[in-house]
Structure formats: C-alpha cells, structure tokens
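Can anyone check this?
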Amino acid sequence: YIFEIDDSDETNVRTDYTLIRKADIASFEILSKYYAKDQQNIYFENRVVHAVDRESFQVINHKLGRDSNALIFNGYRTEVDPSSIEILSAREGAHQLELIAKDKDHVYADQWTKFGKTGMRTGYDKTLALMKKIADPASFELLSDLWAKDQSHIYYRFKPMEQIDYDSFQFLMIDNYSHWAKDQYHLYQNDKLIKDIHGISFQVLNRFWGKDQKHVFSFDTGRIRSKIDAPSFQVTDDQGGAEDKDF
C-alpha cells in the first residue's frame, strides 16, 4: 500500500510504502482510493477491516462503505441502523468533519477515538460516534458543518446553544474559517457572541461587510468599524469597496 504523509503545513510530503502481509496477490482487487479486497479480507488502506461480510461489501463513496448488515466508515463497523440511515454530509479532509449521518434514533459524526482492542491497532483514529445531546434526530438538519437545528434546539458542534433565540435564529454564511449566524439579539462568529451588534436589524451586505442601525461590521476583521457612518454606509463593489457620507 502506497500513500503520502505530510505535516500540518504540507511542506514535508513523503511517500510511505507499507507491506500488507495478509494480502493474497492473485485475488487482490482495488475497489477505491481507500478500500480493496482479496479472497479472504476487505482492506482499508493497509489494514484489515474486521466484522465485515466480504461478499456483500460495497463502497458508497470516499471512506464510506456498507455490507448487508452494517455501515462501514474509515474501515470500522458502525452502530448506525442501515435500514433508516440518512447521510447528511460526506466529504474528504483530515482536519474537518468527514461524515455526518443519522438514523431513526440517533445522530452520528466522525470523531477521533482511541483504539486498543484485540485485533485492532492501538492509537487514535476516526470512527463514527453517537452525538448524545441531540434532542430530536428525526427533525435534525445541518445548516453548515458546524451549525444545525432540530424542532426545538439550535446546535453548534452538536451541542445545544441554549442562549440563542430559536424562533429568530438565522444562519448567514461561511467566510474562510468563520461560520456567521444571528438571532434577534446578537450576531455570532462560530459560537462567539459579537458585542454591540443588534441582531434583528443586522444585515449582510456582502462577504466583506454588514451593518445594523448604528454600526458597520467587517467580516474580514471580525470587528465593528466605529468610525464609519452606518446610516449612509453602502458597498460599491464585490471586492470590498464601500463608502459612507464622508469617505
């Protein structure tokens, strides 16, 4: 098995070659970027997938697969109910949520988990974990990969945000690494409250600018621009240009 290893800033990429000792060369078949099989096993990268039915196994996409009995993520069997599974988000990326799913009873998301069981390597790896604080999985829906809601709660990273006004909550946009939202009282940058912004009158003008009745707000800096006149402020282009009555 051949794969690339890189550090966090991608400045030191090297190729790693790992011998899969249990693989049968004659019957070995590549199924996808991550999965393969031979006459005895299903493989995820360079390790054997345990507790999987080889005959019925199929790749869904990315790191996600299934057999006749269960959903398989990142090479590990999950507890998701296959008869009621709904994939809410699936994408590739080691530093972001790769899979969010739900069944009739629970919501699940990939989490770093420590393994040390017999037959499995010891260490941390991603697997699908149950999100315990979701009140109503049936009505749960994603607003972004960080914000979500069900019929009674707003969630940030799958934790209920009790201070947010549910009825007036609006998810606004994703800008770089920030997820912006508001309710009638406040503006939120991720789960951080922005002081002195009046939520009910706040409007997004474009990805650079927003304002309420009294203040102009810069999404680039994450701060109020106190010297700008809010009533006369307007954007002039989509590149960050704007003007007020003075400048």
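Reply from J.R.: I decoded it. The chain has a mean pLDDT of 91.
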